């Protein structure tokens, strides 16, 4: 679907997967006006298709679009597009227990712009792919390394929305971490360099006794949809839940640490390595 700045998105249509045409001056290519979402469709044993809270993705896209000066599809347009795309690709949804169909909606500034300004035209599209486990080894505990030099987000920036540039910011640290055998990178805040933020593609939780803590949403981490569900679930199960500042040192005393996200679902953390210039700490949870 397309839309000019200040107008509404037109009705979309299904197309065979393929390349799209873009002007070299497109806002997304020059000034990073791009947002995405990620959600999954699951097949159930009785043949139904389940989407996990897709209206939350629609709302998050709209919040992100405001920050990025982009128009966005309505919640209904988003949901209709997701449903139509999933139904058209039903044959690619893995059988129950074997994975899911990952849906990747993209909102981009597709209109041409030369000076720094919002693009005059926008495109909203989505594609799908069957997926299995995000981390090697399935639900086996993952090993994280705390990044002390590079940050994925800074206060006042765009870390709290799902814009494409946030993911370019994590590539460098992620490649280095994977080369050393780690599953992923745990980021710290960019000011004090001691408070937990999140992992490249998921939110983090720390468990101590009956208390489940997770970093508060303050514009530098993504408000994960899985995070919110886990917080609601934990409360309903009688756990004490806190969204707060969590120092990296607190990890030493944690009973359990886990990560949440659409791709990683709920992944247990087996170890966290924190290499400080003066201190070497291997935290075995
Ligand atoms: N943080 C980041 C940086 C992410 O990319 C994701 C994945 N969308 C998450 C957290 C988890 O969000 P959600 O539970 O909505 O997938």
In short, what is this structure?
The protein is of the alpha+beta class and 285 residues long. It is 21% helix and 31% strand.
Architecture blueprint of SSEs:
Blueprint: E1 2-4, H1 27-31, E2 34-36, E3 39-43, E4 49-51, H2 54-67, H3 75-88, E5 100-109, E6 121-131, E7 142-147, H4 164-179, E8 184-188, E9 196-199, E10 203-208, E11 211-215, H5 225-236, E12 240-244, E13 256-261, E14 265-275, E15 280-284
Parallel strand pairs: 7-8, 7-14, 11-12
Antiparallel strand pairs: 1-6, 2-5, 3-4, 3-5, 5-6, 8-9, 10-11, 10-13, 13-14, 14-15
The structure holds 4'-deoxy-4'-aminopyridoxal-5'-phosphate.
4'-deoxy-4'-aminopyridoxal-5'-phosphate binds at residues 38, 198, 201-203, 222, 224-227, 260-262.
Structure description:
This protein has 285 residues and is an alpha+beta fold. It folds into 2 domains: 2-131, Aminotransferase class 4, branched-chain amino acid transferase, N-terminal domain (D-amino Acid Aminotransferase, Chain A, domain 1), CATH 3.30.470; 142-284, D-amino Acid Aminotransferase, subunit A, domain 2 (D-amino Acid Aminotransferase, Chain A, domain 2), CATH 3.20.10.10. 21% of the residues lie in helices and 31% in strands. It contains 5 helices and 15 strands. The strands form 2 sheets. Strands 7, 8, 9, 10, 11, 12, 13, 14 and 15 form a 9-stranded mixed beta sheet that branches. Strands 1, 2, 3, 4, 5 and 6 form a 6-stranded antiparallel beta sheet that branches. Helix 2 packs across helix 3. Bound molecules: 4'-deoxy-4'-aminopyridoxal-5'-phosphate. Belongs to the class-IV pyridoxal-phosphate-dependent aminotransferase family.
